[in-house]
Amino acid sequence: MTIVKIALEVVVVIASILLTLLILMHRGKGGGLSDMFGGGMGANAGTSGVAEKNLNRLTIIVALVWVAIIIALSLMAKYHIG
Question: What residue intervals traverse the membrane (predicted)?
């Protein structure tokens, strides 16, 4: 069971990094972190509507996977599995 625990920990680290990058890629609505890095250049400079929807979906999927793995790891720790 330790192999499963190690695999889940590796996946949660990868998902954390990916989730951070996906959140930073979102278009800023003003005054946020994305504006600090040049995200507030104009309405036409941002991503298209379809790309923004796909980015939202991918961010939600990665976030749900991240939450599920965190819950699984905490349950494994609580019941001393692995």
Answer: 6-24, 58-77
Q: Calculate Rg over the CA atoms of the chain.
A: 17
Q: Decide if 33 is inside a domain.
A: no
Alpha carbons 39 and 46: distance in angstroms, whole number: 8
Domain range enclosing 63: 1-26+48-82
When divided into structural domains, the chain yields a total of 1
Q: pLDDT by residue (tens digit) across 40-63?
A: 555 555 556 898 899 999 999 999
The first and second tokens of residue 78, run together, are: 């609580």
Examine residue 72 and state whether it is found in any structural domain, yes or no: yes
| CA-closest candidate to residue 67, choices 78, 57, 59 | 59
Report the alpha-carbon distance of residue 59 to residue 77 in Å, rounded.
27
Residue with tokens 């972190």: 33
pTM of the model: 0.75
